[in-house]
Design brief:
Blueprint lengths: L15 H16 L10 H8 L17 H26 L3 E5 L6 H4 L7 E6 L1 H13 L7 E6 L6 H7 L8 E5 L8 H13 L6 E7 L3 H8 L3 H6 L8 H7 L2 E7 H7 L18 E8 L2
Parallel strand pairs: 1-2, 1-4, 2-3, 4-5
Antiparallel strand pairs: 5-7, 6-7
Helix pairs in contact: 1-2, 1-3, 2-5
Protein name: S-adenosyl-L-methionine-dependent methyltransferase
Enzyme class: transferase
EC number: 2.1.1.-
Length: 289
């Protein structure tokens, strides 16, 4: 999914890191629209830093749709929704923000964070370094107290986060975007348990989740076997039950419903009228005290 063009500044990111460039490419596409749902001038800068990285996805013969056709709308809708959730929480009681597996997320730079916001972004060191250098060289400035935390979510990242200055006694808004469906069920349980252990009462959680479907599997398989393997399924239980078991009070919204509220077509991957489609959700939850 994508190609890296030549040039002395070209940077190679593999696996999850390169997948995050795909999300940046979709955000850059949305930013070019006159009716864009959000503004992200930094997405294209990140692609340029990667040597002119471009997203190319073949059309699936059976459906006539590409991965871009299927997922661009979902990325636009989820970005707009999660932007609003994060800013509302930070302006209310959650002055501490954690972006898990932040990838090419430019929210520290592009969102108007309330005064006093302290934001931690957690990802692999090479991903964070790439993004920091790309945005610093373009003159971008974070609009919050911004801390990058190099950590692997499969390891002891909570301790690394604490050492970086995270305070578990302060209500936190957590973002788990594009993560849950990339985890097997047991790993999703561990991730949520760790967030819960680190959260003061009143903390909030924002996330998305996607049900796999014949349309998505065929589109991923047309790109690479690696992208097929990255999709692991996430929680086994329905999202309300899963979050409630850990003490969170959730609100779960369908992608199709939000698309209509934003006056956008339902993304094909989540269109109930399209054969082979599945369901997608955007999630908010509050930790009960």
């Amino acid at each position: 999914m994508g190609t890296t063009q030549g040039g002395s500044d070209a940077v190679s990111l593999n696996g999850i890191g390169e997948t995050s460039l795909g999300v940046a490419a979709l955000r850059a596409m949305e930013n070019q629209r006159a009716d864009r749902l959000f503004e992200d001038p930094y997405a294209q800068r990140l692609l340029d830093r990667a040597g002119g990285w471009t997203m190319t996805t073949p059309v699936t013969p059976a459906s006539g749709l590409s991965f871009i056709d299927l997922m661009a709308g979902q990325v636009a809708i989820r970005t707009r929704f999660l932007d609003e959730v994060l800013l509302d929480a930070a302006g209310d009681s959650c002055g501490q923000v954690v972006l898990l597996a932040s990838g090419m997320d430019a929210r520290p730079y592009r969102l108007p964070w309330p005064a006093g916001t302290r934001l931690f972004e957690v990802d692999f060191g090479e991903v964070l370094t790439f993004k920091r250098d790309a945005l610093r060289d373009s003159g971008a400035q974070a609009h919050c107290a911004h801390v990058q935390v190099a950590a692997d979510l499969r390891a002891d990242w909570p301790e690394t986060l604490r050492r970086a200055g995270f305070d578990a006694n302060v209500p936190t808004i957590w973002l788990a975007e594009g993560i849950l469906y990339a985890l097997p069920a047991d790993a999703a349980d561990v991730l949520l348990a760790r967030m819960t252990e680190l959260s003061a009462p009143g903390s909030e959680l924002a996330a998305d989740h996607v049900e796999d479907s014949p349309l998505l599997r065929a589109a991923r398989a047309a790109i690479s076997d690696e992208l097929v393997r990255l999709w692991r399924g996430g929680p086994v239980d329905d999202l309300d039950t899963w979050l409630g078991r850990h003490g969170w009070k959730p609100a779960v919204r369908e992608i199709a419903t939000l698309a209509r509220s934003y006056r956008r077509p339902v993304p094909p991957a989540f269109d109930p009228d399209l054969d082979g489609s599945g369901r997608g959700w955007l999630i908010t939850a509050r930790l009960q005290g």
